[in-house]
Amino acid sequence: MSILQTISGNMIPEMYKQMSTEELENKVREVKARLGNRLFIPGHHYQKDEVIQFADVTGDSLVLAQLSAENRDAEYIAFCGVHFMAETADVLTTEDQKVFLPDMRAGCSMADMADIHQTERAWEVLMDTFGDTIIPLTYVNSTAAIKAFVGEHGGATVTSSNAEKMVSWAFEQKERILFLPDQHLGRNTAFNLGVPLNEMAVWNPIENKFEYEGSLENVKVILWKGHCSVHENFTVANVHSVREQHPDMKIIVHPECSREVVGLSDLAGSTNYIINAIEKAEPGTSWAIGTEQNLVNRIIQQHPDKHIISLNPYMCSCLTMNRIDLPHLAWSLDSIEQGDTKNIIKVEAEVAQKAKLALDRMLQR
User: Fold this and answer.
1) Are residues 88 and 8 part of one domain?
2) What mean pLDDT do residues 18-25 have?
3) Does residue 18 share a domain with residue 86?
4) pLDDT tens across 75-89, in order?
5) What's the whole-model pTM score?
6) pLDDT, tens digit, for every residue of 261-313?
């Protein structure tokens, strides 16, 4: 069955679109109450408030997958995030647990920028060019197939929280690193560890070639040409605008932003790093945050004692993450209770086994 057929066969029934917010909220509460501990709803930080209010836990993608795996009472995991996150949860949970994604259209543009065919093709060129001197690392924001490839070739996954530790580990294994699929996190991390920018090459998977001026023998890091569609929209012009309009305001951004933006900001770190930094900040301080808008809005609401704005005043929320809404959540929980198998995320056994190798290498560090 094609992806199009899978999605079209899992479209939300019209009745859920016609229900009022109150009706939908009541339905979610009722199903949660009836299923009790058999149901677990992890919610990513970037989810809408209408969804996050029903989450049993909130966090970033890997933490949510780990918490899902630790919750042995849960037979059903309604993962409020995007596809690769639900895949990771399926890899880490048991065969008796079923992972559901309320809307199968909730993907990730960054994860989609590296498919397994492109990666295998690139690896052949890299082996011909550099020999056995490369180890692959992949951001957890990648497909299970990419994680499996990395696991099979001795590499590991990384998060934005532990990227520096994992890149340091990788350099202990091999002379060079292939970093998938986010070039910005890879570049910012390697730069922080002292790798000069002129020792980093970009691999263009569409044109199947390096983007690099100079001798390739000097390259230590090969960056996959992928990016987060949200974080790449924070620009140097945004930084200069904040500096001019709010001279006392601190700028804190996610490392999925470009090197230029991160370099001009006061602080950079993972989603949890940003949340914790604002929580620890003194009342009355001013902040411009460069990350997803749903989260920024939630932080603003949670900290009325501070002046907080988005680094980009015209930023939109993550469009694919926003596909998980209240009607889809209600429909998904109804389907789960009725024993319907729509929207189940299931990673093939061989792929899951190899992907778990990459995840375990990271979790053991």
Assistant:
1) yes
2) 97
3) yes
4) 999 999 999 999 999
5) 0.93
6) 999 999 999 999 999 999 999 999 999 999 999 999 999 999 999 999 999 99
Residue 219 and residue 298 in one domain: no
Distance CA 73, CA 77 (A): 10
Claim to verify: residue 187 and residue 282 sit in the same structural domain: no
Whether 249 is covered by a domain: the verdict is yes
Residue 290 and residue 231 in contact, taking contact as beta carbons nearer than 8 Å: yes
Is residue 237 in some structural domain?
A: yes
Same domain assignment for residues 121 and 98: no
Name the pLDDT band for 5 (thresholds 50, 70, 90).
Answer: very low
Distances 33 to 12, 26, 132 between C-alpha atoms, Å: 23, 10, 55
Handedness of CA 125, 128, 134, 136 (dihedral sign): positive
> For residue range 142-197, what is the model confidence (pLDDT) as tens digits?
999 999 999 999 999 999 999 999 999 999 999 999 999 999 999 999 999 999 99
Q: Is residue 353 part of a domain?
A: no
Same domain, 115 and 223: yes
Task: Please report the pLDDT score of residue 172 as a whole number.
Answer: 98
Question: 302 pairs with which residues across the strands?
Answer: none
How would DSSP label each residue in 87-128?
HHHHHHS-TT-EEE-S-TT---TTGGGS-HHHHHHHHHHHHH
The pLDDT assigned to 320 comes to 83
Give me the number of domains the chain comprises: 3
Counting DSSP H helices and E strands in the chain, the numbers are: 16, 16
Distance of alpha carbon 363 from alpha carbon 158, whole angstroms: 9
- Which is nearest to 289 in space by CA: 280, 300, 301, 305? 300
What range defines the domain where residue 70 resides? Answer: 3-106+320-346
**For the chain, how far is it from start to end, CA to CA, in angstroms?**
39
Q: Are 187 and 163 in contact (CB under 8 A)?
A: no
- At 160, give phi and psi (nearest 5°): -70, -20
Q: What is the CATH number of the domain that holds 120?
A: 3.40.50.10800
**Parallel, antiparallel, or unpaired: how do β-strands 200-204 and 209-211 relate?**
antiparallel
Q: Is residue 315 part of a domain?
A: no
